[in-house]
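Handout, page 2. Input:
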Amino acid sequence: ADYMASMFIGDFLIAFAFLGITFWSGVFYVNKKISADILVLVIIILTVVDLWRIDARGAKYHDNPEIKNQFNTPEYVSIIKSQNDKEPFRILNLKQDGTLGSYNQNSNFNAYFLLEDLFGYSGIKPRAYQDIMEVVGPANPTLWKMLGVKYLVLDQPVQMAGFSNIYNGDKTFVNRNENSLPRAYFVNKVEMKNNLEVLNLIKANGFDPKEIAYVHTKNLTVDKPDSTAYSRILKYTDERLQLDVNASGNNFMFFGSTFYSGEADYKLFKIPAGWKAFVDDNQTEIFQTNHGFMGIVVPKGKHKVEFHFAPSSFYISKYLVLILSSLSIIGIVLGIFFERRNQKKNN
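Output:
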C-alpha cells in the first residue's frame, strides 16, 4: 500500500511538472519567444522521458529474500508435477491454513508454478464463471469432473469416492480425481436449458457431464459418439488451441475453457469478440455450454479443430492507434515544414 501511495504521489507531481513545462512552452511559442521546432522538441523529450520512466519500472530487480521465500515450491506442487501429466488439468487447494494458494488465500498463487487452478481466476474473469463460483462454489464433484480438476490439495486425509491418495504429508495431503475428464471431450447428448437451471443442476450434482451437455440458445440434434470418436490436444496456448478430432457422427464436443464469444455491443455498432472456432479452417459456431464454457458440433470424420482468441475489437483498436499515431507524426512534420516555408517567405 505504501509503495502504491508513493508511486501515485510521484506520478502526480511529475505529471503536474510536465504539464507546467508544456503549458509555458506553448505560451512562449504563442508569444514568439521560441520557435515551433523548440516546442515540438520539448514535447518529444517530455514524452520520451515519461515513457522511459514508466517502462523502467518493470526492469528493476530487488533481491528480497522475504519475497523469494514466499515463492518456494510447496510440497504439493512438487508432488503434482512429478505425476508428469501430458494433458491440461486443473487443481484445487482446499486447505484452510491460510498459506498462499489455499482456499482463503488463493491469489492465483498456483499460476506462478504454471498450474491451472479452478479457484484461481482473476477479478476480471467472465461473469458466467463468477456465477458458478457464487452459486455452485468450487467444492463440487460435478464441477471437478466437468472441468478436469485432477488434484485436490487438503490439510487432512479425506476419503472420497472416485479419488485416490497420492501423497500424505504432515499437514498436506494430495488426492487424485480418477473421474476427471479431459479438457475436450464428446458428450452423448445435448439439451437446452436456461442458465439458472444449469447452475442448480451443477450445484445439486444432478447430471453426468460426460453423458449430457446443456446449451442455452437453440435446440441441437446430435449423434451419440461411439468408441471410435476421440479428441486429442495438439497445441495448447493462451490464445490458440489445436486438436486432432475424429467424430463418429454429428457429435457435440465440450471444451472446458471459459466461454467468451459473440459480439461486443458498442451501442452504435457491434464488433465480433472473443473466441472463434474452426473445423478444417471453416469457422463454426461456439455454443455457450453448461452455463460458462464452450461447445461445438463436429461433423462425422477426422478433422483439425482450432480455437483462436482473436477479438476484432483488439485488432481494430491496434490498427486505429497505429494510423492515428502515424497521422500525428505526419501532422507534426508537415507543421514544421510549412512553418519553415512561411518563415522563408517572410524573410
